[in-house]
Amino acid sequence: MLKNTNLIHSSKKSLVAFDLDGTLTTSRSCWEDVHKFFGTWESHGKKILDQFLRGELSYEEFDKKDVEVWIGRTRTEYMAAFEIIRYRDGIEELIAFLKDKGCFLALISAGLQEFVDIVAKRYDFDYWIGNEIIWKDDIITGDIKINVDGNKKGLILQNILERYQIPVQNSIAIGDSTADIDMFKAAGLSIAINTRSKQVTEIVDFVCQSDDLKEIITYLNKLQRIKSFTL
To answer: Structural domain of residue 128, as residue ranges?
Structure first.
């Protein structure tokens, strides 16, 4: 989604693409958060995740099975689940810093679109995308529209850069897990937040080992002082 759907070319010269779950929030997955809110994590969600990690389910099957567990839930009770999710310390300062630099801010998440919308609007992102639950009369149907494959975020980032004519070297990808590797590789600079993955640690330019996102501001200011990167 776009803040301004009539925007064809951005006047901004740099772009920062964020993952959402585990990056801007303290919890690793809004899918898991909804499961726990509904009491379906241990009985269904965790088992479905394990099946996916063992390669027994495709990404589409994984998401579909997750949503099917919630068939019949109302929009009101579903939206209430997002109220318990907490944001990382320093999020306001980091977003303000990047906006002050004139960066185009994108939120690329394999999470649930309704929560992506909440965060994008709260922090005034320029572009955001997530996976959309299908509703009928404000009731979950069990169907879902996959806009973001968890392992194919790089292509989305590339498309945004091309659409708004922002050079790859002027882009930053910020995430936390192996699901962000494709996005890390597509960006000019890559930053991981408290990652648990050795694979991620080995490929990114910087690992923020603090729970406070202001550490990224310190890192970016240092890069600009030595003129190795310009926002």
So the answer is: 15-26+87-225
